[in-house]
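#structure-requests
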Amino acid sequence: MTESSNGRPTVLVVDDETGILDSLNILLRTEGFTPLLAQGGKRGLEQLTAVTPDIVLTDIRMPNVTGVDILAAAKQRDPDCPVILMTAQATLQSAMQAVNEGAFYYIQKPFRNDELVAILRRAAEHRKLRVENKSLKQEIRRRERTSGTRPVGISKSWLDVLRLAETVAPTESTVLIQGESGTGKEVVSRYIHDLSNRVDGPFLSINCGALPEGLLESELFGHVKGSFTGAVKDKEGLFTAAATGTFFLDEIGETTPATQIKLLRVLQHREVIPVGATEAIPIDTRLIAATNRDLEEEIKGGGFRTDLYYRLNVIALHLPPLRQRADDIPMLVEHFLHRIAEVRSEPLKQLAPGTMEALQEYTWPGNVRELENALERAAILTTGTEITVAAMPERVTQRKAEPLVSTRTPPNPTLEAVERAYILWVLQSEGGNKSRAAEVLGIDPSTLYRKLSRYGVEAA
């Protein structure tokens, strides 16, 4: 319920008589309301474009703009707003017409102050219940749609991403999701949409790298008939089609400078100009963008606009690659095997002994998408109920053995590479004894085993 800062319900009072406005101003303030006064219907309409009152109290018979006009405008702006109509010439017919058009109450002048106050309080309670009920229904729908859809994973890096996604979901902020191909950028963007206030609106997506520039702009912004060869009729763009919902722009780093300029305009002015058109169309769409490129490096090389990057990068989510979340592989395997069984309408298959270890030792350069594809392949090739290592792609099961310590020094080692080199140096110094190496490193042996598994190294 929209209330004034002191918690009092706001009442927009519309009447063309100054005396009535003055008396109602005093009465409403005394009885715990915050009055907003508008002398005449025209001024009342102006007020409705500037504020959203809890209640509207308006005279019916006013020159130029009537109380019925005020009623229609108030309901268009806020369907839950109770509108009380006042008139000195009440008839049964006019009262029925007012109620049929959506009026909350119809009161005849002159009225008793206590009668009007009682009606206003009922209207305030009615609005409060309507708003709370709507909010509750939205929450129920949101929970129903997100029940069981939280992206799978228990590793700290993944849970950190999900917590940030859950924090920003109810806001209108633009989100930029960065991560390698196959890490789940669209999955996370859908999760944000399902938790947002736009959950009842559409979720639309497009891969910017899959279309040539001309076709991409037509898909994004729409076009008018005759704007180019083949444009035989007007076409609505995805930005406008996603109204009241979320638009996911995948691989935005693949866009050309010309398209980037147009995207910048969308973010700055919240409007689009269809290809071949001259007039802008306002949009009501939340944008989530994603990329597998390092956009800051792209900026240095002149491949991406700095101003667009900062418009997109309001909230940044960095998705970790699967090789950094090996603890999530068992959960992901279970999730995908259930989904595969459901899609194929066949009994659920399990992993044979040793298969999970092979999956956790592999580095998964294609990330979660590669894992899902490997499991689907294995399920198709497996006639029984157990998926063996042999059913997995050769790249997963046959990897070259690596020395404990590499003599190569990478030009720009990552933190993970430095950690790997140090752990393997300690392990070699301790003659391959994992227990002593874990003690020297100050970590649990189980943690050391997991790290060695992640590095794909079998210590002697």
